[in-house]
């Protein structure tokens, strides 16, 4: 049944943590060209339910449980995220950064929040891969360097790189 979509499956398999079964599940739920149904990756994440909830009342922030979404697609990027964080690369660094921000590795809640963040990133990567028709390429150290330089400059430091 997936023979007509073999090109899209081969593109999705390049995403970290994704395999042929997860690619088939994603294609069956959002089609091989998600750009015509979801104009942005953020709208796909919102429809899927892999985006943070926001419960604010009278200026107080309450539980930020994720919102309900497509119950058939929602677990797929989460499982891909768990597989992706076990290998070196962008998803693992994103996971580590968010675990440490939310309370460290001893906190189960911090690990779960971080995996949802990685799952949303993987879903966005899948949307971009299917929309552009280009396979996933690892961002590399340049992206992390730019992020760290921007953070230092936001703290008021002047940064110059020497080759």
Question: Topology of this protein?
Answer:
Blueprint: H1 6-12, H2 20-30, H3 41-48, E1 56-57, E2 60-61, H4 75-84, H5 90-102, H6 108-132, H7 141-154
Antiparallel strand pairs: 1-2
Helix pairs in contact: 1-2, 3-6, 4-6, 5-6
What strand order characterises the main sheet? 1-2
Q: Cα-atom Rg, whole angstroms?
A: 18 Å
Element string (H = helix, E = strand): HHHEEHHHH
Overall tally of structural domains: 1
Q: What is the tally of helical segments?
A: 7
Spans where pLDDT lies below 50 across 5 or more residues:
none
| Helix amount | 40-55%
Q: How would you sum up the global shape?
A: globular
Rounded mean pLDDT is 90
SS elements, strand count: 2
The structure class reads: mainly alpha
Q: State the end-to-end distance.
A: 52 Å
Largest sheet: 2 strands, antiparallel
| Beta-strand content bin | under 5%
What does this protein look like?
The protein is an all-alpha fold. It has one domain (3-54, 63-137). 54% of the residues lie in helices and 2% in strands. Strand 1 (56-57) and strand 2 (60-61) form a beta hairpin. Helix 1 (6-12) packs across helix 2, helix 3 (41-48) packs across helix 6 and helix 5 (90-102) runs antiparallel to helix 6 (108-132). The longest helix has 25 residues, at 108-132. It is globular, with a radius of gyration of 18 Å.
């Amino acid at each position: 049944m997936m023979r007509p979509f073999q090109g899209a499956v081969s593109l999705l398999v390049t995403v970290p943590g994704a395999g042929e079964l997860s690619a088939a599940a994603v294609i069956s739920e959002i089609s091989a060209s998600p750009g015509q149904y979801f104009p942005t990756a953020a709208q796909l994440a919102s429809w899927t339910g892999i985006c943070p909830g926001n419960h604010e009342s009278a200026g107080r922030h309450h539980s930020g449980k994720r919102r309900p979404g497509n119950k058939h697609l929602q677990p797929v990027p989460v499982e891909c995220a768990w597989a992706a964080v076990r290998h070196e690369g962008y998803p693992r660094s994103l996971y580590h950064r968010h675990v440490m921000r939310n309370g460290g590795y001893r906190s189960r809640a911090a690990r779960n929040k971080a995996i949802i963040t990685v799952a949303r990133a993987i879903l966005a990567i899948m949307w971009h891969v299917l929309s552009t028709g280009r396979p996933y390429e690892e961002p590399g150290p340049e992206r992390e360097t730019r992020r760290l330089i921007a953070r230092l400059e936001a703290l008021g430091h002047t940064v110059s790189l020497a080759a």
